[in-house]
Amino acid sequence: MVPVITTSALARPARASTPDATRRRPAARCPRRNRREGTVLRMREPSRVGAFVRDARCQVFVRRSSPDRHTPGIWDLVGGDVVPGEDPERALAREVARQTGWTVRRVEARLGTRDWEVAGVRRQEWSYLVEVDGDLAAPRLSPGNHYAYAWVGRDNLDLVMAGHSDGDRRLRDLVAKATRLRLSERLRLEPIGPEHAEDLWRVHQDPAVAAWLGGRYSVGEARGRATSAARAWESTGVDKWMAYERTTGELIGRGGLSWSEVDGRVGLEVGWTVRGDRWGCGYGTEIGRAALAFAFDELGAADVVACTERHNRRSRAVMERLGMRFVREVIGRAVSGRGANGRPAGRGVTGQGPAGWRDGLPERASFVLYAITRRAWTAQAGGPIPRQTPADRAGAPWTSQSAPM
To answer: pLDDT-derived band of residue 29, with 50, 70 and 90 as boundaries?
Structure first.
């Protein structure tokens, strides 16, 4: 049941439950750039701003408008109007403080826009991901404007559709994006959707990337991949992120989780693709670590696998830094594709090849399979070791051979 808190019961909201090259390359300098590469340039100032405030579980704060408002019962973000000539981020900080009592500590990024018309005047709202200081269990709701609040996560996204008789999904889809986005020390990991098609194309134009993934993407292919990723996020709650440097907005690469099949069993596979001029900076490891945390700490996976070509020493080194262990070699490649609900169809590792590799790779190419279990992940993180269940033992037959339990 969705935790909804009214002003008469302000209790704490319930918590819902690459490729790499092997040839010798110069040491990467990993510079920090000041230009915001890979981000959308401002074309005009917004009429309104909105704030994605998240809790520790990446759930987004929303409020419900009072019955006597012009949009009664609608859930929306914290936000408000921008005074002409006012800096949008200053307006954002002002509205968050005024409407909740929280203080904006950091504006992370602009996640999206919404356009609409009022009396023939076109208006636009810019929505930002922010970090705040204050007691998230005790927001200050505006009397007469809002009477309830809730935290929206992966399992209750459709809450924000209440009152939208026209089926307008724009807010719902932006909230979904915010709940799936993850932050690491240096990277902002955005769930891939159609808006990332150009950046996905750019990553796969990189000669160093194309050399390992069977060639460059066409524009159409990049658009198709971005659309497929969005569908997978919706149907399974899992797919790849685009990775951007948090300070500069620079495009770094992509990576995350996908469904794969190993020995006839469907499970999660982790992968990463980093621009060639950023190899050696630790970005692949950072993406992989965020994906494993998502798989084990949030999705409750029993184990995660990874595949790469046998001679891809850089990628194998990343797997080993992540605590993954070599299982065995596999020969050939599988047929890519997704079945119902985004699950694999006609693809997998059954002694013949790893999942998800593009056409154009050699039929008899030799790959390696790595794996890590939840117990091993928890142990290296210094947490309590979970009790091994019969399902864990039955679910990952390869781990009893090579990967630590």
So the answer is: low
Q: Which residue has the tokens 């810019």?
A: 126
The values of phi and psi at residue 173, to 5°, are -70, -35
In the block, which residue shows the tokens 């700490």?
297
Phi, psi of 232 (to 5 degrees): -65, -40
Q: Find how far residue 251's CA is from the centre of its chain.
A: 15
pTM confidence score: 0.81
Radius of gyration of the chain (CA): 23
CATH number of 182-400: 3.40.630.30
Using alpha carbons, list the distances in angstroms from residue 129 to 58, 68, 183.
11, 29, 11
User: Would you state the pLDDT for residue 116?
Assistant: 80
Query: Alpha carbon 44 to chain centroid distance?
Result: 28
- Among 271, 268, 254, 127, smallest CA distance to 192 is for 254
Tell me if 40-178 shares its fold with 182-400. Answer: no
Give CA–CA dist 284/183, Å, rounded. 14
**Residue found by looking up tokens 């198709």 in the block:** 224
b/e 56-89 (16+ beta carbons within 10 angstroms → b): eebbbbbbbbbeeeeeeebbbbbbbebeeeeebb
CA nearest to 76, candidates 2, 180, 172: 172
> How many residues in the chain?
405
Structure tokens at 126: 């810019």
C-alpha span between 22 and 20 (Å, rounded): 7
Say if residue 277's pLDDT is above 70: yes
Q: What is the mean pLDDT of residues 24-37?
A: 47
3-state secondary structure of 273: strand
Q: Which of 173, 146, 181 is nearest to 4 (CA)?
A: 146
List strand residue ranges (DSSP E) for 175-250, in order. Answer: 182-183, 187-191, 240-245
Domain ranges of the chain: 40-178, 182-400
Among 336, 252, 184, 225, residue whose Cα is nearest residue 18: 252
In sequence order, which residues have a C-beta less than 8 Å from that of residue 327 and are 6 or more positions away?
305, 368, 369, 370, 371, 398, 399, 401, 402, 403
Angstrom distance (rounded) from CA 367 to CA 311? 8
The answer to whether 316 and 304 have CB atoms below 8 angstroms apart is no
Query: How far, in Å, CA of 212 to CA of 205, rounded?
Result: 12
Instruction: Tokens for 330, please give them.
Output: 């596999």
The CATH number that domain 40-178 falls under is 3.90.79.10
